[in-house]
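Notebook entry, structure prediction.
Reason for the run: the old model in the group folder had no record of what sequence produced it. Starting over properly, with the input documented here first.
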Amino acid sequence: MHRAAILALTTALATGLCAAPIAAYAADAKAAPAAAAYKAPRTSFGQPDLMGFWSNSTLTPINRPAKLGAQSVYSEAEVKKMEAAVVEEVEEGNKPTDPNAPAEAPKVDPAKVRPEFAAAGGDVGGYNRGWLDPGSHVMRVNGEPRTSILTTPNGQFPARKAGAPAQPGFGGGGGRNSFDNPESRSLGERCIIGFGRNGGPPMLANGFYNNNYQILQTPDSVVIDVEMNHDLRIIRLNSKHRTDGVRPYFGDSIGHWEGDTLVVETTNLPRSQNFAGSWENLTVTERFTRTAKDRVRYTFTVSDPTIWEKPWGGEYEFAPLGGVIYEYACHEGNYALPGILGGARAEEKEKAAAATTAKAGGE
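New structure, fully documented this time:
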């Protein structure tokens, strides 16, 4: 399984279309529906009820396709075209494979494969389309079909302050080129937590599969069961941040209710879970609001005064999963990690043998 390739692509899912001029688009777009007053149901202990099985899978990427510029909303015509293309993609990808085709032969027309899918599953041993579930609809927030999850003016990560460390590249700096031992590989490859930021915070779809959650509530905590990798994110209500220096994988999350909105502040994220290179001084503030029977609005704000001039963030809406989540048995039949390490050892032996041969020839 090509987890290393996938890690590089979790923020790159961008199948943008050529955008019409902004003025023309504005005239064509449907106005977002007025937010009707919705009163979230209450739990038996009086809290707004967020419980249930939810998904944040979507065609909308985290970062807006650069060619869209400041266009934050798709036209309905663009949405229709994008969502129809997914239907065709699934049909094409699910066609039977020719058993007589060579291993290198593409199963589908390369021109019809998204670049990120081709990179993650286009080679031998990669995923067939049937194993992928990135989402089939553009993300709508208050009825608007968004072009990005980020709500910055250009839909991109904001500029960094002078002197701030550069944003990590491929894999978030998670040991891509280190093959000495399992501990140097990424947490996703080791099946400790999921690749991407499914658990967060911020909680973001990974662009490939298993973007599903179960939210549970008690009087003093909210628990989010993250399908990949079967992680439980525990949010303590009306409490205080820990001061012992411990940095859990999902940070230290403290929540409180502001009306019908659950507000969660998370600090103490570890280096391994950095977001855009920020971790030591990172604060992520999330807001969960039940806006309809079948929608939960999710917004997040990122703050790190050592890296960015001001806070920034994004938003999307959870939709019902339409089922339940099961254990993500990540290591069952997983040959990727021993394959990565075994390949490195074989390469080392080949280099050592070549060096010995070269030395013998020079004597």
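Summary: Residues 3-320 form one domain.
The old model has been moved to the deprecated folder.
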